[in-house]
Write a structure and sequence with these properties.
Order of helices and strands: EEEHEHEEEHEEEHHEEH
Structural class: alpha/beta
Strand content: 25-35%
Strand order of the largest sheet: 5-4-10-1-11-12-9-8
Helix content: 25-40%
Distance between the termini: 39 Å
Radius of gyration: 18 Å
């Protein structure tokens, strides 16, 4: 089985859609995805993800199923009585605490337990478990019980934050490392493939993370969205 996780195109957050660049990215993405034999498409309910999916779906004359848990990750923390995102933290807020590097303790730290991180994390984990079980792979500890071995391809259109949560659960690692040490640019494709070396037991292996080869093939420069300044004195986003 192949699981493709696709981030939406360059976003226009003000209208929850795509910029002109984002639409160009989505068009190039559609050329790539429409060449695949896809069993099913699933999508976040947010406009920027649905718009990204729309060009591929139109080319393939297919529909997608919206799943609420594929919306951008809604885990929050409290800082100075204000709720803010848990997955956009500066290094010294977390790197010196080993608990942040484990998938079963990161949300129990003082900072992450200040709001709803554990609840939202488990909501997404339960969502991907139910979906994969429906496609033949049942989560069992740190591997998957194979109920229906298959070569199906399914595609999720979603967002960087929730993508990292999905990967952290499937791969049994902390989302903190994925959120802060990896980056999936707009319309990037992350590909996981099952590997069954023992009968009835599967693991998912990441073949590609954040691949944007379709942009390079179309002569489109990658978006800066999701990145911050390369050097502190750069005149870019901090």
């Amino acid at each position: 089985m192949k699981l493709l996780i696709v981030r939406h195109g360059d976003p226009d957050y003000a209208i929850d859609s795509l910029t002109k660049k984002g639409w160009r990215e989505a068009e190039l993405l559609s050329h790539r995805l429409s060449a695949l034999d896809v069993k099913a498409f699933y999508c976040s309910p947010l406009g920027r993800a649905r718009d990204t999916a729309s060009l591929t779906l139109k080319k393939m004359n297919m529909e997608c199923i919206q799943l609420d848990w594929l919306t951008e990750f809604e885990g929050k923390i409290k800082r100075h009585l204000i709720k803010t995102s848990c997955w956009d933290r500066k290094p010294l807020e977390w790197v010196n605490d080993d608990n942040y590097y484990r998938n079963d303790t990161w949300y129990k730290t003082k900072l992450m337990s200040s709001a709803n991180c554990e609840k939202e994390y488990k909501r997404v984990c339960n969502g991907i478990d139910e979906l994969l079980k429906a496609h033949g792979y049942e989560h069992t500890g740190r591997y998957y019980k194979v109920n229906d071995s298959n070569h199906d391809t399914i595609v999720l259109f979603c967002h960087f934050g929730v993508e990292c949560v999905i990967l952290s659960h499937i791969l049994s690692c902390s989302p903190m490392v994925l959120w802060h040490n990896f980056v999936a640019l707009p319309t990037s494709v992350t590909t996981l493939i099952t590997e069954e070396r023992e009968k009835g037991i599967a693991v998912f292996r990441c073949q590609q993370f954040g691949d944007i080869s379709h942009l390079y093939a179309g002569g489109e420069e990658p978006s800066f969205a999701a990145r911050f300044c390369e050097c502190f004195d750069d005149d870019t986003r901090h």
